Amino acid sequence: MVVEFESVGKQFKKLKALQAVSFQIMEGEVLGFIGPNGGGKTTTARLMLGFYKPTEGIVRIFGRNPATEFHRIGPLVGAMLEQPGIHDGLTAYEYLQFYGGLFRMSSADCEARSQELLKLVGLSDRASGLLKAFSKGMRQRVSMARSLLNRPRLMILDEPFDALDFESRRIILDLLPRLSKEEGTSVFVTSHNLAEVEEISNRVAIIKQGRIVAIDKMESLRKQVGSSTLLVVSLARDYPKEKLEQLVPHAEYRRKDRTLVFQLDTVNGRQDDLLMHLLKSGISINSVDRQSASLEDVYFELTK
Fold first, then answer.
1. What Cα–Cα distance (Å) separates residue 23 from each residue in 59, 151, 185, 196?
2. What CA–CA distance (Å, rounded) separates 300 from 304?
3. What is the pLDDT of residues 145-194, one digit of tens each?
């Protein structure tokens, strides 16, 4: 077992940041950890890194307590926090060399690994560039390279996609599943971008107000909300929300793309009757589609 949380609680004065949180991360697994601001995501990551001690319960990383034995755990862990420490006066290459020294890597290994990782994150041509001139996306990518420098068996990533440009985001999205499959690296990742979490995660945990609401594979989470399939009706134009709610009270109206979304089980096999009801009521329809519930759909259904 790589990560174990057993009934973990964390309290800051009167604030209960975590309450009875239990989960595990297996070798080679990517666990997406999602929830609102203040839900407990960053507190969970910091407990893994030994920054905090739990108020109650047990945290184990590779079978050890990170709050007291991180000197033994640290060489096996790579971390990228929401506000990564960047040394603006260094070049990208010097930055990796500096951390290679902290990991006591040999000069030859650090040199080879630095070149390999800069290429991996698409920064080979900027190796000699000062970090202070890097964009947010480039700084995130060089931080990702630093988190991989010691060939970690566990990566702890807190909002790694924050403010990334498309190219930087795509590089990281492609990288993480490859690390888990090819190198057996376990990944704990928090993010507000639910589509990206869904893309890369083997399992997803949903945390709200310090408690885990659900944790499972996506298909199982879909079943928890009553259906693995949605009926999506695209409307020809915008209609008053009140009128649509009166016509079809069991549908969700997404005004930004003018769609009515139904859990398929609420239709009860009466798709044709439903569409005819809308048409007879003066609602013009462009198209009808069936699709699996997204992580965003599941999240709002489980936390509402």
1. 10, 24, 18, 21
2. 6
3. 999 999 999 999 999 887 678 888 888 899 999 999 999 999 999 998 89
Measured distance CA(275)–CA(229) in Å, rounded: 17
Q: Which two tokens stand for residue 180?
A: 């888990």
For each of the domains in the chain, give its residue range(s) and CATH number, in order of start.
3-216 (3.40.50.300), 227-293 (3.30.70)
- The amino acid at residue 202 is N
Cα(21)–Cα(23) distance, integer angstroms: 7
pLDDT, tens digit (0-9, with 9 covering 90-100), for 193-250 = 899 999 999 999 999 999 999 999 998 998 887 665 778 899 998 998 888 888 888 7
Question: Helix, strand, or coil here: 158?
Answer: strand
Q: Which two tokens stand for residue 256?
A: 């930004």
Q: Are strands 30-34 and 203-208 parallel, antiparallel or unpaired?
A: parallel
Q: Rounded to 5 degrees, what are φ and ψ at 94? A: -65, -35
* Neighbouring C-beta atoms of residue 38, cutoff 10 Å: 13
Q: pLDDT tens-digit profile of 65-121?
A: 999 999 999 999 999 987 767 889 999 999 999 999 999 999 999 999 999 999 999
Give the chain's radius of gyration (CA, Å): 23
- One-letter identity of residue 139: R
CB-count burial class (<10 Å; 0-12, 13-18, 19+) for 236: exposed
